[in-house]
């Protein structure tokens, strides 16, 4: 059976009427309520045969939307002499491409004013749009222009426009994701207009923000990137978080949607600064804060050191500098900075060691055997120098890393919840005391490191692909 | 006997496929149209039909109508001592209709084909079936109202043309179907509609206009006043259909209000509603892939399609005047009768084959990758497209979002929006995936099967293991489950309903009470008549009652005409 028409036992050039007769005949043997499957096959075949018939007959589909040429409406003859002749005359003349363009342009211009009701009222009174074809063509023209121009438009006007042309439907042949993106961008463009900053403020929904604050942030975002400006603006950690939150909510998490006037590097800087990992932005901001703290500590320390000397001048005694407050203040500023630096060093290690198994990673073998290696080193040191506590140096990190790895890699998953660790913390102190008193520190630490490590390995056995774990 | 029932928003009809084609059964009052109204009297007994409709004016808190609009919702109505769900109210109507059919034919009704708006959702269809069960009959098949009208029209008129459009504007729902008829095959190409658009909405528009013009707070109207106003507006609306202008007179508190309306004004007031009529028409034509000129005929059915503005809309859109050879009130019921004949495999209908469509798009929720590489949730992936010919069965393959995913939630939706949040959730299915497989290995084939009775079946097959999961659509709050239906059936059976042979007396009394409420000037006269009639009723002399009832009815006719 080559062609659908032949399936019906018809010649290749059979007309629609013959096909329908053949279909009706077969349908009596294959009723939809008695033989659903047979009917579905028959109906699918009928549709194909019908298409074949029509293509041979030169009949075009009723809605050649993609076609550029204007479609002629067949002349309509009224069956009765009614009072409606005048109105009917309105749909008869063919709409030229220019007319379609003009209506689309006017509709978009109205939508850009933001009044959905006025837009709908205008669209409904357009006599040309009573024709099904003209309406379909105008609707498509509108969508084309929206995609090309991305005009600023509030959501309700967008919905009114697309809804009137029935293009907000799942079967309207517009990709839903692209349409959602277009809608976000048009809405954003609308809200970025000065008159609608209040709407923007309400949508962003950060309580402490006033319209003025939003304007200053928007103004700042379009300045070209420069290190001094961002470091100054982000000196306070809360300011950094506020900016990142504002930008995220502004574009609903879709940073590609931000208009070109936004400085990409600046936007990226704020996002990097609030990310979990170690980024340049985070390091730069942290270093700035640390150095400033040191500077302030040094100045204040020096002032304190000099102050009593000035006071003593009055009594005529020789000036002497006491530098102790200076060193105390410097130390106070230095200590958190050092801790922060250590934390910055630890974060990448944590991420590298606790990565999900199926994601490629650098140095896969070291990654896999990190914990056993540290354990072996610790045990060797203990054997070599039984009285020293140096063996704790590799063993404590090993236990910590193993537990972290176990925890991180079970976060998505299966049967050990983080609750186990929360309970464990309460038991930790008595447990540690017992361990130290009984002098079983080494086996205890070894077990603490190796048991989760082995357990994790067993859990991941199906996805362990050491051989092809290379960085992408 | 299998009957066909048109369970309408304002009126219901019953009939069957008899020896000479479809026949309708008259109710106790001798008419075919039984108003879809339920009322409860002081003793807690249920009254259905014309008497209940008249009691809407005199006893508005103990009466209810237009409950078809609430089908598929859990809304409950309190009438006297009883609380009813929309299914139960519909069941009471069905019981009254069945009693009429059994009285007229002398046979027992076992099964019915009930007509529903083509655009009724899954929950609304289930509720209609439940109503049938609560009325004690089997309802296997529901027929879409425009399809029924087309069946009746096609068989009755045997039109030359083959493609036509049925425009069905009823009391509460609006449906459009594009059909083709050839060689005894009735093929529906497309259906579209609006479940909350009908004659009642046009009445709302008029009510709002009166109230705003006369500075009356609509929310403060008492139920009685509102009932009276609506009744008068209804009469006025019908008069406008005959052309020209009309006026209403209405008692609002102490104040007598007169209000004039002409057809042009009515058309202007209802313009927003007329525009809502456009969208389904356009959608149906587009889905059927037809141009207006390719239609051979346009058939108007449903009582509200008598309004001249409907004919104007149709002629403006399609460039021709619509046909109205069928009786718009009875066409759907007659079609339901034909459908009952088809269901019973009547030999004379052997040549007729009906194929219908599924009016909604059905699909599942999926997530998609956006340009930034992130996942966006909540997209609607259609599996059965709207206006597919039923029965239909389609399958598509989907992958879990992540590798090593162990659970998959399949959410089934009905609707047209590309985002699921704006569609109606029908149910969900949890699938356990085999562990340690990639997303590609864990692909799932989802099959939707929509059968001729409008039942959707969802089946998910894991392609790797062949394990099958079937979805039993969860009971959503709008639908009763079988145990609940049994319990409510027992409760309904316990409620006393006024017997059929007393219906005529009841209707006369209810009408007198309504007139008493409506016409202040005639109150004394009416009160006297009512007392007279009651004393005649007490005599229990059947002959005397019948004679007096006739006289009473004539007197009220005269009264209504003179006022």
Structure at a glance:
The complex is a heterodimer of chains A (472) and B (563). Chain A is mainly alpha-helical.
Label this structure with key terms:
heterodimer, A: 472 residues, 5 domains, 20 helices, flat, disordered C terminus, B: alpha+beta, Nucleotidyltransferase, domain 5, Substrate Binding Domain Of DNAk, Chain A, domain 1, 5-stranded mixed sheet
Structure description:
The complex is a heterodimer of chains A (472) and B (563). Chain A is mainly α and 472 residues long. Chain A has 5 domains: 4-57; 115-192, no CATH class; 195-274, no CATH class; 282-346, no CATH class; 354-459. Chain A is built from 20 helices and no strands. In chain A, helix 5 packs antiparallel against helix 8. Chain B is an alpha+beta fold. Chain B folds into 4 domains: 2-160 and 327-351, ATPase, nucleotide binding domain (Nucleotidyltransferase, domain 5, 2-Layer Sandwich); 161-326, 2-Layer Sandwich (Nucleotidyltransferase, domain 5), CATH 3.30.420; 358-451, Substrate Binding Domain Of DNAk, Chain A, domain 1 (Sandwich); 500-562. Chain B is 36% helix and 28% strand. In chain B, the strands form 8 sheets. In chain B, strands 1, 2, 3, 4, 10 and 11 form a 6-stranded mixed sheet that branches. In chain B, strand 5 (37-40) and strand 6 form a beta hairpin. Chain B is globular. The two termini of chain B are 46 Å apart. In chain B, 48% of the residues are buried. Classes of the chains: A mainly alpha (472), B alpha+beta (563). The interface between A and B is large, with 56 and 58 residues.
Count of helical stretches of chain A: 20
Please bin the fraction of helical residues of chain B: 25-40%
Oligomer: heterodimer
Class derived from helix and strand content of chain B: alpha+beta
**CATH topological fold name of the largest domain in chain B:** Nucleotidyltransferase, domain 5
CATH class of the largest domain in chain B: Alpha Beta
Form type of chain A? flat
Radius of gyration of chain B: 26 Å
CATH architectural type of the largest domain in chain B: 2-Layer Sandwich
Based on CA inertia axes, which overall geometry of chain B fits? globular
Fraction in beta strands of chain B: 25-35%
Mean pLDDT of chain B: 87
Helix-and-strand structural type of chain A = mainly alpha
Mean pLDDT of chain A: 80
The main pleated sheet of chain A reads as: none
- What is the number of independent domains of chain A? 5
In the predicted model, the low-confidence regions of chain A spanning at least 5 consecutive residues are: 59-92, 467-472
Task: Sketch the topology of chain A as an H/E string, one letter per element.
Answer: HHHHHHHHHHHHHHHHHHHH
The most extensive interface between chains reads: A-B, 56 and 58 residues
- Helicity range of chain A: 55-70%
Please give the domain count of chain B.
4
């Amino acid at each position: 059976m080559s062609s659908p028409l032949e399936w019906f036992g018809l010649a290749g050039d059979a007309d629609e009427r013959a096909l329908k007769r053949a279909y009706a005949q077969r349908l009596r043997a294959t009723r939809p309520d008695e033989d659903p499957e047979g009917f579905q096959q028959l109906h699918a075949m009928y549709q194909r045969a019908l298409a074949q018939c029509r293509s041979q007959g030169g009949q075009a589909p009723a809605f050649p939307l993609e076609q550029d040429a204007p479609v002629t409406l067949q002349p309509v003859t009224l069956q009765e002499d009614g009072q409606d002749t005048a109105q009917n005359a309105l749909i008869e003349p063919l709409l030229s491409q220019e007319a379609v363009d003009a209506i689309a342009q006017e509709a978009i211009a109205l939508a850009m004013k933001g009044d959905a009701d006025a837009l709908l009222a205008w669209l409904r009174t357009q006599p040309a749009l009573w024709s099904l074809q003209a309406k379909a063509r105008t609707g498509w023209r509108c969508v084309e222009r929206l995609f090309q121009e991305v005009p600023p438009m509030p959501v309700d006007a967008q919905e009114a426009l697309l809804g009137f042309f029935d293009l907000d439907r799942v079967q309207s042949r517009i990709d839903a994701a692209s349409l959602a993106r277009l809608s976000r961008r048009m809405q954003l463009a609308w809200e970025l207009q000065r008159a609608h900053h209040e709407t923007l403020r309400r949508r962003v929904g950060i309580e402490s923000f006033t319209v003025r604050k939003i304007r200053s942030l928007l103004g700042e975002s379009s300045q070209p990137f420069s290190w001094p400006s961002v470091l100054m603006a982000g000196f306070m950690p809360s300011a950094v978080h506020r900016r990142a939150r504002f930008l995220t909510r502004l574009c609903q998490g879709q940073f590609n949607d931000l208009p070109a006037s936004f400085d990409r590097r600046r936007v990226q800087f704020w996002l990097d600064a609030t990310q979990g990992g170690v980024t340049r932005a985070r390091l730069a901001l942290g270093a700035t804060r640390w150095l400033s703290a040191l500077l302030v500590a040094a100045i204040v320390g020096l002032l304190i050191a000099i102050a009593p000397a000035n006071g003593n001048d009055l009594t005529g005694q020789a000036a002497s500098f006491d530098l102790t407050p200076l060193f105390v203040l410097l130390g106070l500023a230095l200590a958190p900075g050092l801790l922060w630096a250590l934390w910055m060093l630890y974060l990448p290690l944590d991420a590298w060691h606790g990565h999900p198994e199926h994601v490629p990673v650098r140095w896969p073998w070291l990654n896999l055997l990190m914990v056993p290696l540290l354990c072996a080193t610790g045990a060797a040191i203990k054997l070599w120098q039984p009285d020293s506590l140096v063996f704790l140096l590799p063993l404590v990190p090993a236990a910590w890393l193993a537990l972290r790895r176990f925890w991180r890699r079970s976060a998505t998953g299966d049967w050990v919840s983080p609750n186990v660790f929360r309970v464990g913390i309460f038991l930790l102190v008595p447990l540690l005391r017992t361990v130290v008193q009984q002098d079983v520190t080494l086996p205890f630490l070894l077990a603490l490191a190796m048991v989760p490590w082995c357990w994790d390995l067993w859990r991941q056995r199906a996805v362990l692909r050491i051989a092809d774990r290379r960085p992408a | 006997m299998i009957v066909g029932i048109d369970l309408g928003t304002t009126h219901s009809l019953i009939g069957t496929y008899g020896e000479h084609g479809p026949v309708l059964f008259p109710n106790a009052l001798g008419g075919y149209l039984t108003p879809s109204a339920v009322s409860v009297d002081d003793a807690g007994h249920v009254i259905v039909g014309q008497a209940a409709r008249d009691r809407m004016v005199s006893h508005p808190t103990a009466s209810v109508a237009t409950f078809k609009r609430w089908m598929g919702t859990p809304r409950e109505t309190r009438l006297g001592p009883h609380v009813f769900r929309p299914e139960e109210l519909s069941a009471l109507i069905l019981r009254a209709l069945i009693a009429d059919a059994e009285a007229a034919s002398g046979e027992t009704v076992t099964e019915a084909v009930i007509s529903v708006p083509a655009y009724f959702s899954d929950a609304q269809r289930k509720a209609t079936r439940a109503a049938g069960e609560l009325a004690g009959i089997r309802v296997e098949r529901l027929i879409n109202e425009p399809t029924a009208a087309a069946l009746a029209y096609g068989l009755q008129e045997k039109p030359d043309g083959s493609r036509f459009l049925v425009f069905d504007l009823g009391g509460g729902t609006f449906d459009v179907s594009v059909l083709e008829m050839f060689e005894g095959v009735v093929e529906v190409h497309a259906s579209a509609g609006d479940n909350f658009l009908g004659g009642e909405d046009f009445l709302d528009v008029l009510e709002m206009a009166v109230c705003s013009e006369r500075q009356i707070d609509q929310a403060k109207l008492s139920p009685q006043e509102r009932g009276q106003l609506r009744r008068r507006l209804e009469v006025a609306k019908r008069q406008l259909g005959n052309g020209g202008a009309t006026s209403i007179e209405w008692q609002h508190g102490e104040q007598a209000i007169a209000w004039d309306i002409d057809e042009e004004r009515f058309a202007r007031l209802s313009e927003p509603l007329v525009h809502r009529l456009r969208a389904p028409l356009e959608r149906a034509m587009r889905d059927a892939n037809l141009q207006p000129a390719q239609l051979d005929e346009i058939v108007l059915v449903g009582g509200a399609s008598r309004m001249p503005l409907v004919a104007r809309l149709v002629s403006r859109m399609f460039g021709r005047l619509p046909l109205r050879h069928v009786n718009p009130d009875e066409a759907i019921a007659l079609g339901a009768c034909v459908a009952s004949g088809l269901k019973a495999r009547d030999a004379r209908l052997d040549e007729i084959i009906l194929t219908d469509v599924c009016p909604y798009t059905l699909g599942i929720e999926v997530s998609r990758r956006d340009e930034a590489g992130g996942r966006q949730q909540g997209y609607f992936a259609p599996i059965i497209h709207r206006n597919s010919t039923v029965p239909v069965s389609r399958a598509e393959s989907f992958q879990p979002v992540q590798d090593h995913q162990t659970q998959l939630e399949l959410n089934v939706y009905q609707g047209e929006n590309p985002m699921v949040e704006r569609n109606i959730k029908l149910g969900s299915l949890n699938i356990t995936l085999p562990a340690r497989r990639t997303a590609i290995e864990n692909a799932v084939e989802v099959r939707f099967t929509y059968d001729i009775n409008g039942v959707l079946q969802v089946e998910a097959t894991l392609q790797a293991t062949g394990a099958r999961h079937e979805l039993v659509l969860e009971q959503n709050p709008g639908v009763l489950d079988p145990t609940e239906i049994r319990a409510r059936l027992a409760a309904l059976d316990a409620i006393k309903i006024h017997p059929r042979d007393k219906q005529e007396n009841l209707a006369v009394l209810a009408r007198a009470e309504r007139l008493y409420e409506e016409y202040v000037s005639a109150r004394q006269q009416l009160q006297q008549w009512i007392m007279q009639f009651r004393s005649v009723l007490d005599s229990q002399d059947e002959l005397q009652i019948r004679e007096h009832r006739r006289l009473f009815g004539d007197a009220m006719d005269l009264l209504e005409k003179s006022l």
